[in-house]
Structure formats: C-alpha cells, structure tokens
Amino acid sequence: MRVSCKAERGVATKAVLFDLDGTLVDSAADIAEALNRTLEALGHARVSEATVRGWIGEGTRHLLATALRHAGDARDPDAVLAPFMAHYRQCLLRSPVLYPGVAEALALLRGRGLPLAVCTNKPEAMVAPLLEHLGIAGFFAAIVGGDTLPRRKPDPAPLLHLAGRFGVAPRECLMVGDSATDRDAAQAAGMPVVLVRYGYPRGLDLERAGALAVLDDLRQLPALL
C-alpha cells in the first residue's frame, strides 16, 4: 500500500473529521439507484453507476441538478427533491459497504482518545441510520450533514463548527476526505487535510492537491498522527 506524505513527522492532531461517502462508505450504488428511480419517474433513461459516482460529493441539490441537466430537463432540482429523498430512504441501506480498514482505523483513533466526527454533504437525517447499519455509529461524537448548517462544504463553516464543538483550533483538527470539496473546505478553514485514493475524486489530481498525505487504506492514518 502506498502513502504519499508531505509531513516529515507526525501531525499534532486533537480531533479528526471524516467525510462519509467515498471516504468511510461506498454508497454509490444506492445513490445511483435512488437517482435512477427518480429519473425513470420523470420519463428519462437510467444512467450508469459509474456516471453517478462522478456526480457525488457536493450535496443532493447539486446531484439532482447535474442529473437533470444530463437528461436535458429544465426543471429546478428543488422540484424533484422530495421524490428523490423518498427513493433514497428506500435505497439507503440497500447495499452500502465500509471501505477496507475503516472500522480498524476508527478503533485505533478512538483508542488514542481522539474525538471523531462525520462532516458530510449528505442530508443529516440519512447519516445516523447509515452509520448504525454499518456498525460504526459509536465511534463518532458529532455529525454535521449538508443541511445541518446554512452552508456546507466546500464552505469552511461545517469544519469550523466541529472544531468549535470540540474546543480545539482548526489547525489542531484533521479533515479526511476524498475530493476537492473536502480539500477546499479544509484549506478555507485553515485545517490540515488527508485524502484517500479509493473514493470519488471527480477528476481531482490527488497527488497535487496539497494534502498532507494521500492514503490507499485508512489504516495508514494513525501512523501519521
């Protein structure tokens, strides 16, 4: 396994914030199915899971706007938000899987006494059931979803909110994600960021993204701290 690392020594970290989809959980198949059911109800053709993977990461409204534009549909994404959410609730626990090493890494970090949080653009109501289903809910002291605050990633507000909740400076937190959305939010917050190679990078050049490290497996993370 590779670790591309710019830090010459361990990073002083007092809290770790994790993106969800593409970092801890591979949920693309379920998101794609919910989106395709929504498109079919509108009379549009289904799209491939691979295509949807490239659209994930900037929140539900962005996902719907991209899908409607792809289908040549001029509807406002807010007009199809309710039916999409109904389909997603049905698909949420259909086939999500943890990426290899996630549970072990979380256990190691918790064993060090580090507070952990989820910082995602997924609607907050969808986060806890997913974490419970996958058996990792107990690792996290806080959750911020895409609709928890008025602003979401790549705005730094969710990361700054979590740093404040834990009572630590942003520079003492570490953001772990898989995309430019996570990188940009962390940089705007003045927070170090680590990226993973296996998620939904959406064209981001991970090696040139300015991350402290780029990991193949989350079990490599504790050694950096």
Automatic annotation (TrEMBL):
Mg(2+) binds at residues 19, 21, 178. Keywords: Carbohydrate metabolism, Hydrolase, Magnesium, Metal-binding. It comes from the Bacteria. GO terms for molecular function: metal ion binding; phosphoglycolate phosphatase activity. Its cofactor is Mg(2+). Its EC number is 3.1.3.18. Specifically catalyzes the dephosphorylation of 2-phosphoglycolate. Is involved in the dissimilation of the intracellular 2-phosphoglycolate formed during the DNA repair of 3'-phosphoglycolate ends, a major class of DNA lesions induced by oxidative stress. This is Phosphoglycolate phosphatase. It comes from Pseudoxanthomonas taiwanensis. The lineage of its organism: Bacteria, Pseudomonadati, Pseudomonadota, Gammaproteobacteria, Lysobacterales.
